[in-house]
Amino acid sequence: MSTLKGKSAIVTGSTSGIGLGIAKALAGQGVNIMLNGFGDAGEIENIRKEITAMGVGAVYSAANMEKPDEIRAMAADAAKAFGRVDILVPNAGVQFVSPIEDFPEEKFESIIRIDLMSGWYASKAVFKGMKDAKWGRIVSIVSAHGLVASPFKSAYVSAKHGMLGMMKTLALEGATFGVTANAICPGYVHTPLVDKQIPDTMKARNMTRDQVINDVILAAQPTKQFVTVEQVASLVLYLCSDNAAQINGAALSIDGGWTAQ
Ligand code: NAD
């Protein structure tokens, strides 16, 4: 029997891409899921039903990760639905690309709220429960941009570097309570977010789809292959397992060698 069976997880930003893959992978191990994120109500309900069909509980919170009150309510709803929250995956994230001199200030602050601050508010809301239960896992989906920079991504890179510091700190605070906090740093993952950028880049650079993928998106990724959602999700499952109990405060790269350069 799986050691995760019967546990409960909040996965922020789980209506799409990496978060959705993580939610399904955890559900496959018998973990009850609090879904969160934006999207079409009917599609989100279909995701919820698909997850309950895996034999676990699934509830949905529309909490906006820019709003601390809504984040607190999401955590309270998860605890009410499942009794407690054992696993938190701060995953919701957005990107905006601009030279700093033109970077809209409201965009900068919004990215800091979603990609950095929401992880802090969500962790704050679940941490005491994890310590009391003497078991907990916080697995943040950060980025290679938590470790290295690229030009024009000053907000995203700031937020992602900040998440690494936050995970290290929570790792120390939870260490004697069976609560670990770690960061996963993926390179490029082929999600709807990345896919949407391909046609525009093809036009802007007069390139074919393959050229955009190999020479632009995967330029820094030595394997010249995307990381898959399933590969990220399986690393989350590993970090949640008892075998990973001594991995704490780590930044785990899954980037085809990007940050080895
Ligand atoms: P995605 O756009 O497919 O999914 C993002 C999710 O976040 C969606 O569910 C969306 O509704 C949700 N979201 C956005 N703003 C929100 C808000 N204010 N409140 C609540 N939910 C909100 O993106 P993805 O590629 O799956 O990215 C997920 C995470 O992985 C992000 O943190 C991203 O930075 C990180 N990441 C992605 C890649 C990649 O190449 N795709 C690489 C490294 C890290």
What ligands are attached or bound here? Answer: nicotinamide-adenine-dinucleotide
Q: Give the count of helical stretches.
A: 9
Residue-averaged pLDDT, rounded? 96
Instruction: Report helical residue fraction.
Output: 40-55%
Largest sheet: 7 strands, parallel
**Model regions low in confidence, pLDDT < 50 over at least 5 residues:** none
Question: Key terms for this structure?
Answer:
7 strands, Rossmann fold, 47% helix, binds nicotinamide-adenine-dinucleotide, 2 domains, alpha/beta, seven-stranded parallel sheet, single chain, globular, 13% strand, 261 residues
Detailed description of the structure:
Helices cover 47% and strands 13% of the residues. By secondary structure, it is α/β, with parallel strands linked by helices. It has 2 domains: 8-188 and 228-253, 3-Layer(aba) Sandwich (Rossmann fold); 190-226, no CATH class. Strands 3-2-1-4-5-6-7 form a 7-stranded parallel sheet, with helices on both faces. β4, α4 and β5 form a beta-alpha-beta unit. α1 (17-28) packs across α9 (229-240), α3 (68-82) runs parallel beside α4 and α7 crosses α8 (209-217). The longest helix is centred in the middle third of the chain and has 29 residues, at 105-133. The N and C termini lie far apart (41 Å). Bound molecules: nicotinamide-adenine-dinucleotide. Nicotinamide-adenine-dinucleotide binds next to α1 and α6.
